[in-house]
Design brief:
By secondary structure, this protein is of the alpha+beta class. The chain folds into four domains: 192 residues, Heat Shock Protein 90, CATH 3.30.565.10; 128 residues, Ribosomal Protein S5, domain 2; 149 residues, formyl-coa transferase, domain 3; 92 residues, MutL, C-terminal domain, regulatory subdomain (Ribosomal Protein S8, Chain: A, domain 1). The chain is built from 21 helices and 23 strands. Strands 1, 2, 3, 4, 5, 6, 7, 8 and 9 form a nine-stranded mixed β-sheet that branches. The chain is elongated, with a radius of gyration of 31 Å. It binds adenosine-5'-triphosphate and magnesium ion. Magnesium ion binds next to helix 2. The site of adenosine-5'-triphosphate has 22 residues, from helix 2 and helix 4.
Length: 613
């Protein structure tokens, strides 16, 4: 920085309007997509039912937004273009905002950074046009026009070359423009949108969204399907929850429909697209239990409330909001989504079936395979479990009831019929010591028994913890585990919490600990392997996450230790009991890592594979 000589007093000047506007405009218009956002929002505020967006060269040379909204009178055009002039609020109540716009900044900002031309006509009046170039405004002139408004912005940032330099490729800017239009369109299903690339005289339609009809949820569903694909709506749950006047609606993807990055999370507050950290965090928390950390949920969620309960005036692009009661908003998202996920029960994503069909290439000998453990791993697992397999160790179900006994107690014990009408059907066979093949009324399912059982154990552990704590069983021979001193203290620090989960660990001199009791539900297990696994989990989590999240993660690790490993042969009654438990257990459609626990193949699909259809 070039600092002035401290003995010379610098002169304070009033910047001219053009310079002041250009500085202010920088906050509002960052790139073509932000200009598009302002213009489409204005069209929506004007009550448009049809909005057409066109752009050239990624929006750098031209952006044009046409709407059929209320329009403006010719005399009003100069006012619309001056700073802090708005028809949307009177300034007396900044907390009660019902429109996208309220600052009266967007049009003057666009006029300061590009060549702007507006043609508008309102009902019962003649059309008029006005132009602004680099902040200099012309006079409004009559012009023939249809009802509504057309705003054209050419040569964005021609007056501010510094900004121009930061512009990305046409492709990247076009992508950002499309994302902006899609986001706005998601919340406005009754408005039709088109997006057209008109670079170099050509016309390429990028997006066409017809106005949806019918009830709001159906309209949203159609719109979201048009933007995100039918896949999304078919693999999403409807959310509709309310808490103290805050309403949460929309769609949340099944955990098995998750993504590798947080790229498909769309949140809206009173129709306004937001990228609010608090809300995104709440969404993450809602899925914490059903997704591993490297998977990200897909969701389109709409929060509506009295505008007074949320401040939208906290961010220049209005993309963050501040709830008056952030805890309430967060709680609503977490509980609303969790509730829906629990209600989804064993439902897994339909796209797995698609993947399965894709993998079954007639004539190529490549059967559909999920990540099956290696032969060696299966052999070890088998050894670890024998002779105390699931049925014998029993822990998982009520003490003393073996799987077999449970299955026999079922109402319809006919050997070839149990579960035929049940969603997951009747077990027919087990293949490769891990996959259960069951026949359903409409086709068949293949269950990954290890993944399914792990999930069932986890859900059961959670239920027990929520009730009276997880019952433990004392080890006949307490097991001493040697650890590093930091590991030992990390473990002992959470010992009281582990005790509530049925794992009793005490210090044993130096850096050793002694495991005295383990969760009864897990049956006989390798206590030192469990302890080391828990330490790995704690290390993975880091100190940053809160205790509750860490304990949840520990619980999930525990579940792995109690599950039927692949590699154990199961009797038909045991398999059927597993299927019935999956049906009765929430979240059983995916394992603790978000992978599906079963895939479904309908008879129609099977017939397709054999060319019968
Ligand atoms: N497409 C349009 N149809 C009808 N009137 C419009 C349209 N665009 C803008 N206006 C009028 O021009 C005014 C100024 O628009 P501008 O976008 O600059 O400010 P705003 O929308 O009120 O607030 P913000 O700066 O927060 O967007 C609006 O208040 C509105 O009255
Ligand atoms: Mg505006």
């Amino acid at each position: 920085m070039n600092r002035p000589d401290r003995n010379i007093r610098p002169e304070i000047r009033q910047l001219d309007a053009a310079a002041a506007n250009r500085i202010a405009a920088g906050e509002v218009v960052e790139r073509p997509a932000s200009a598009v956002k302002e213009l489409v929002e204005n069209a929506l505020d004007a009550g448009a039912t049809r909005i057409e967006v066109a752009y050239a060269e990624g929006g750098k040379t031209l952006i044009r937004v046409r709407d059929d909204g209320c329009g403006m009178a010719g005399d009003d055009l100069p006012l619309a273009l001056s700073r802090h002039a708005t028809s949307k609020i009177d300034g007396s109540d900044l907390l009660n905002i019902h429109s996208f716009g309220f600052r009266g900044e967007a049009l003057p900002s666009l006029g300061a950074v590009g060549r702007l031309r507006i043609v508008s006509r309102m009902a019962g009046a003649e059309g008029a046009a006005i132009t602004v170039d680099g902040g200099r405004m012309g006079a409004p002139r009559p012009e023939a026009a249809q009802y509504g408004t057309v705003v054209e912005l050419r040569d964005l940032f021609h007056a501010t070359p510094a900004r121009l330099k930061f512009m990305r490729s046409d492709r990247a800017e076009s992508q950002a423009v499309a994302d902006t239009v899609k986001r706005l369109a998601m919340a406005e299903p009754y408005v039709s949108f088109t997006l057209t690339d008109i670079s170099q005289g050509a016309q390429r339609e990028i997006l066409r969204l017809d106005a949806a009809q019918g009830a709001l949820f159906d309209a949203w569903e159609d719109r979201l399907a048009a933007i995100l694909g039918r896949d999304f709506t078919e693999n999403a749950l409807r959310i509709d929850a309310e808490r103290e006047g805050l309403r949460l609606s929309g769609f949340a993807g099944l955990p098995t429909y998750s993504r590798g990055a947080a790229v498909a999370q769309f949140l809206f507050v009173n129709g306004r697209p937001v990228r609010d950290k608090m809300l995104l965090g709440a969404l993450r928390a809602a899925y914490m239990d059903v997704l591993s950390r490297d998977r990200h949920p897909v969701a389109a969620l709409f929060i509506t409330c009295d505008p007074e309960r949320v401040d939208v005036n906290v961010h220049p692009a209005k993309s963050e909001v501040r709830f008056r009661d952030p805890g309430l908003a967060r709680g609503l998202v977490v509980s609303g989504v969790r509730h829906a996920l629990a209600g989804a029960g064993h439902r897994a994503t339909s796209t797995n079936t698609g993947a399965m069909l894709g993998a079954f290439q007639p004539g190529t000998a490549r059967p559909y395979q999920m990540d099956r453990p290696s032969g060696a791993a299966r052999a070890t697992a088998y050894k670890l479990q024998a002779p105390q397999g699931m049925a014998e160790s029993a822990g998982f179900w009520e003490a003393g009831t073996t799987l077999a006994a449970r299955a026999e107690a079922a109402e319809d014990p006919a050997p070839d019929a149990p579960g035929n009408d049940a969603p997951l059907g009747a077990a027919r066979a087990q293949v490769h010591e891990n996959y259960i093949i069951a026949q359903t009324a409409q086709g068949m399912v293949i269950v990954d028994q290890h993944a399914a059982h792990e999930r069932l154990v986890y859900e059961k552990l959670k239920r027990l913890r929520a009730e009276n704590g997880v019952p433990s069983q004392a080890l006949l021979l307490p097991e001493i585990v040697e650890l590093s001193s930091s590991d030992a203290s990390a473990l002992l620090e959470i010992a009281p919490h582990l005790a509530a989960l049925g794992l009793v660990v005490d210090p044993f001199g130096g850096s050793a600990v002694v495991v005295r009791e383990t969760p009864a539900i897990l049956g006989t297990l390798n206590a030192s392997a469990l302890v080391r696994d828990i330490l790995d989990e704690l290390a993975d989590q880091g100190a940053s996450t809160n205790l509750e999240a860490r304990i949840d993660a520990v619980l999930s690790r525990m579940a792995c230790h109690g599950s039927v490993r692949s590699g154990r042969q199961m009797r038909p009654d045991e398999m059927n009991a597993l299927l019935r438990d999956m049906e009765a257990t929430p979240h059983s459609g995916q394992c603790n890592h978000g992978r599906p626990t079963y895939v479904e193949l309908s008879l129609a699909d099977i017939e397709k594979l054999f060319g019968r259809r």
